[in-house]
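Quick start: load a record and inspect it. Here is Peptidase S28:
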Amino acid sequence: MAPRSISLILLLTAVHHVYGRVPKPPGIPMVDIESDYVHHALKARALPPYDTTYYFDQLIDHNDPSKGTFQQRYWHTAEHYQEGGPIIFMNAGEVNAAPYYGYVTSSTINGVIAQKYGGAAIVLEHRFFGESNPYPNL
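Running the structure step on this input writes:
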């Protein structure tokens, strides 16, 4: 073998050895919360539990509405919402978002910001993950 080939093999072995041990970046941690009925902070009215799942009709192709829609899942709370308040939005990433509904609560920074500024918190499931899939057998 030529010295150049040996050097290349040694380099590739070293790179593989180093990068093969690099852990994957951490995902978003799940939040364990009690899901009971919630009351609006200012209006004292009952709100649905945090783990209530909502759906909306999302276009499969925004450039061609004739392709139809699918049901996209989300979770939200207006527990601290005041008119004109911000919407605190979170996408759980490329995973089933159901375990992440806790991000609408004050147990997370999203909920703390919503509470402080009179906002609503939303967790949206990424299309093609969980149950938000336009094509059921993809």
